Amino acid sequence: MNKLRDQKEYEGNPVGLNKEVALEMAEHLDRHLSSMVTLYHQYHKHHWLVEGPQFRDLHLFLEENYTELHEGYDAVAERLTVMGVAPTCHPANMAKLSYVDHEEEGVYRIRESLENDMKAEKTIAIELRSSIQKAFELGDYASKNLLEAQLFKAEDRAHHLEHFLGEDSLSVGYLHSEKEAEPAE
Q: Distance between CA atoms of 144 and 25, rounded to whole angstroms?
């Protein structure tokens, strides 16, 4: 198989970004792409393995999350190609670039898996904010806009994960003070 160009070889772009800006932002975008793919696989794993009384809700929720991540990382990869850079595609190379660690093989309690997902979403949000600032400084407003959209979605997923991880009123019961529990005289 004859390679047309190396993966990191810049080919120019039709949108007027200078080479230095394109290459600097491509490093950021490639890291986000790899991290989003990692989290995509993790959500998929949890979708396959979820059990328990909230199975249906969690099964659908996790499917929505991995579908949204797929759309997001596809948009990031497309942006890389617009900028004249081929996105990282090999799983081993993506694992090296990812700033999100995929949990180990095996089945875990769903609460622990969701906590891991929320931690990953938080990390992605933090890293996206840094890249948004860099894109603004470099004048790459299209990448800034794309990353802002991904940030909103990551924050929204984290917020919904937080709700699933809240205390269950059916297990905990209503909280009340000692004074309320005393019989009236």
A: 10
The answer to pTM > 0.90 is no
The phi, psi pair for 141, rounded to 5°, reads -70, -30
Sign of torsion over alpha carbons 44, 48, 51, 56: positive
DSSP state of 87: P
Distance of alpha carbon 39 from alpha carbon 35, whole angstroms: 6
Tokens of 9: 């070889």
**C-alpha angle 115/33/83, rounded to 5°?**
155
- pLDDT tens digits, one per residue of 5-15: 676 778 889 99
User: How many other CB atoms are there within 10 angstroms of residue 68's CB atom?
Assistant: 18
Contact predicate 152/144, CB 8 Å: no
